[in-house]
Every structure is written in C-alpha cells, then in structure tokens.
Design goal:
Structural class: alpha+beta
Distance between the termini: 47 Å
Shape: globular
Number of domains: 2
Number of strands: 9
Strand order of the largest sheet: 1-2-3-4-5-6-7-9-8
Radius of gyration: 21 Å
Order of helices and strands: HEHHEEEEEHEHHHEHHEHHHHHH
Helix content: 40-55%
Strand content: 15-25%
Length: 347
Amino acid sequence: MRLSRRSLYIHREPLLRRSDVSLPRELQGPPLPTRRLARAEARRILELIVDTSAMRYRELYGFSHPDESGVFHADLGRGVDLFYFGVPPAWRLPLRAYHGGLFFKNGVPAGYVELLSLFERAEVGFNLYYTFREGESAWLYARLLRLFHQVLGVTCFSVDPYQIGLENPEAVDSGAFWFYRKMGFRPVDPAVHAVMEREEARIRRTPGYHTSHATLEKLARGYILYEAPSSDPGAWDNFTVRRLGQAVQRAAVRQFGDDPQSIRESASRGVAAALGCESSNAFAIALSTIPNLSRWTADQKLAARRIVEAKDTGSETRYLRLMQRHPRLRAAFLKWGSSAPTGRPAK
C-alpha cells in the first residue's frame, strides 16, 4: 500500500518541533500547488485509500462515499502528498460541506483528515497513524489548515470534544488537548477555559508538571476554536450545528406541520416562490423557514438560489464559497445556531 513517488524527501536536519511552527504564519503563506486528478487516476487513489483504512479498522464517511469527479492532489512539502475530495450530491450532508483526504509521507500512508464546513467555520478531524506521531505532526497539521484555508476559504477552525478526549481514552492518554492549545486553539466553554487557565498557571509554576487524566477529561468537555487573523473574533463561540438543525426543525414544523413529506413539498414550494428555483433538500427546507425570505433583495435571492443549485448539483467547494459571500444568510444561520448573542471572546 505504497504510493509511487518520483523521489524521496530526505531529512538532513532535526525534525521540526512544535515550537518551530507558527499557525498564523502558516495560514498567511503562499498558495500550495494543487491539481485535479483524471477519473482513472482518482479511482486508483480512492481504492488505495479504502484499502489503507480497512487495514486499520477505520472508516470515514467521505471514504465510503467519495466524489470521483473531484479528487485533488496537493503537494504539502517535505515529502507529504495529500489527496482530498468531497462527496457527490446524493450523499451530501444537510447543511455542511464535507471534505476528506488521506496524506502520505514519502509514499507511505501516514494519516487522514476530514472537514465539515459551514460558511467560514470548519470542524476538523485529524488522525496521524501511530508510527508517525513523533514526526512533525504540528507542522503537518498547520500545513493542512493552510491548504483548506486556501482552497475552501475557511478561517475559523473547530475541534470536536471527542478529538481531545471526550469518551476517547486514546486522546486523553496522548494529551491531545495540549497539542491543540499550543497551536493556538482556545476553549469556548467558560468553565473549561477556567480549568485551562488554572492548569497553565500550575505548569508555569512547577517544572516537570504533567496534567492528570482527570483534568484532561475536564478540558475535553467542550469545543475548542482557532480563528485566523482574517476571521470575525468570537462569532462562532456559541454556535453548534445541532442547535441550528433543531431550530430549523422547529420552525419547519410550525410552518408546515409534522409530516416529513409535507414539509419537503411545502418548503420546495416556498423556495420556488421566493427564489425561483425548485429543491427539496434539507438546505432548501432551512431557507424556507427564514423569516421574511420573500423580502430579500433581488441580489440576495439570486445568491441564495445559486447556493441551493450548488448543493444540489455543483461542487461542495463552490457551495461553501457562495455561502461565504452571503452575509444575510450567515447572520440568520448563526443566530439560530447560537445559544446566546455572539461577541468577542473573553480575554
């Protein structure tokens, strides 16, 4: 299960440490080279990815339902190749865009990444296979975020509590929270933030101090975020996709009743009347429940129609980019998905 490569990258100096990596500097770096794969090459790569994952008893949604027409290669440097892709329309998530990929070091499978994105916010899942976990993992993670910032336009990166230890003993054992914290991520839950500050004070006072398992489990009780310099600080602190989905569902039931088929048909008619396009997907249902949709400007309606069309038939990347250019839609979704008024994070 090795990727053919023209040349090997030889490390002639010590491996890059976490202290050598700056996430802000990485995100501001020049574009990384990418290319779209021809269908036959894409199919070979996807088969290799599935075989590699099966050998490790791993399964990702995107690996099971890849979009063969949109598989891309990115040269991340230092001998690392990434192959990434979205999912075809029939398998897309209701609101978020999905992208996943596998990366190789000198042709050897080294780990995988997946992103679930909404507007400029992306939830990132990252797994480096055991063999490579002492090998420039901070640099690799920063380089992956740089690529997806470049390709998808995302500026706010979110990490699910599971990734840092919630019901995940492996992440607790590895001290995953501190890996992300040292990269610049911060907790959004005030209680978790307080635990982090106390623990950081202990680390500063006590040389050789190690955080206990019990404390690491407390630190994993909430999302952590990293905001690029160009992001809107604090805007996504109180947001969850689950809360957004529940708000849309409640609004749809109020407007159209509790029969799923009736909701889809009524929402499709509502979107057709307001925007001039027909769709019964979940995104169209969400749009149809926005108050005063019919009063949007002609430009706002046209932009929303293009988003609906991209979700139905276009690429996930185009869908995401179009969303990022629609501030009124962003404001509506952000309000529904947030537990309280958003603002700047506490310092």
